[in-house]
Design goal:
InterPro entries: HTH_67. This protein has 17 helices and no strands. The protein has helices at about 10-20, 25-35, 40-50, 60-65, 70-75, 80-85, 85-105, 105-110, 115-125, 135-140, 150-175, 180-190, 195-200, 205-220, 230-250, 250-255, 260-275. Helix 1 (about 10-20) runs parallel beside helix 17, helix 2 (about 25-35) packs antiparallel against helix 7 (about 85-105) and helix 12 (about 180-190) crosses helix 14 (about 205-220).
């Protein structure tokens, strides 16, 4: 039985993870990756997120990322490692994280006691993360912790994100949702990415999307009609998916304790609001359109 308030781990994740994720929307990442010869947007994403795994092939990236079209992955992996090795990519990624956080948060926040405190709390939470059946988390856990607090915080946020993400994929698999069904049902909750963004970034066609919708309707999870809406059963399934993910992701936050989780959530939200106000996230990425 958890000693944390209900959904405390999810609230903390939702406060901390977006600041990590802002890197993938940052022009600074594209600039750093271009310096090492990687310019295609999809190649940048695959390389920067998979580099901790080493020079893996398309099968490994497709499996651990889950919801990308395998054909899109194979277009860039493993060829991207011929342009730049994983170690070179990791160096570029960290430089981009540094530039991005300084630009979004400002030097005063970067040098603040609050940032140092957030780094300490987030790193303490990661002490209870477990590597078994969590390949993306385990690969990132092997990386050194950066010395500067804002980069240590970003590193810890990466670990917490991938720890939860690996668990989430296991839950999706257990729920019988394939990659497209996962994307469709999440977008139908109103909390997922916009359809146009998914199709362009994940490499799927509109016909693929519609086929995923049809499969969910056949299972009674998606309502009939043009509007993307979950049925009562679909809403219940998505709620159970989140609850099951919470259960598999409790350990880091239990380790941190209720007071630490509350404080990390507070600090993370403050950083997030500042970053969002500075234009960290494109409006076109969210919604149902």
């Amino acid at each position: 039985m958890s000693n944390l308030p209900a959904r405390a781990e999810r609230r903390c994740h939702n406060a901390v993870n977006p600041l990590h994720s802002s890197l993938f929307f940052s022009p600074d990442l594209g600039a750093e990756m271009a310096k090492i010869g990687i310019e295609d947007q999809s190649a940048v994403y695959f390389a920067t997120r998979a580099a901790a795994l080493g020079a893996v092939g398309a099968g490994t990236v497709g499996a651990t990322f889950y919801n990308f079209n395998p054909a899109l992955v194979a277009r860039h992996v493993p060829a991207v490692w011929e342009t730049a090795s994983p170690d070179v990519v990791l160096g570029a990624r960290l430089r981009a994280a540094d530039t991005t956080l300084r630009r979004l948060l400002g030097e005063e926040v970067i040098a603040s006691d609050a940032m140092a405190e957030a780094a300490r709390l987030a790193l303490r939470a990661t002490e209870a993360c477990t590597p078994h059946a969590r390949p993306l988390y385990a690969a990132h856990a092997d990386l050194p912790v950066p010395e500067e607090p804002h980069l240590a915080f970003w590193h810890a946020a990466t670990l917490l994100r991938e720890h939860r993400g690996d668990a989430h994929l296991a839950v999706l698999l257990a729920a019988g949702l394939d990659p497209l069904e996962s994307l469709v049902s999440h977008t139908a909750t109103g909390k997922g990415m916009a359809i146009r963004w998914i199709l362009s970034s994940r490499g799927w066609r509109r016909t693929d999307w519609e086929a995923g919708c049809d499969r969910l309707r056949e299972r009674g999870l998606l309502a009939d009609g043009e509007e993307l809406a979950l049925t009562e059963a679909g809403t219940a399934l998505r709620a159970e998916i989140e609850e099951a993910t919470d259960r598999l992701d409790t350990a880091p936050y239990e380790h941190l304790g209720a007071e630490g989780v509350e404080r990390l959530t507070e600090l993370g939200r403050g950083f997030l609001f500042t970053a969002a106000a500075a234009g960290a996230f494109p409006a076109s990425a969210t919604g149902r359109g």
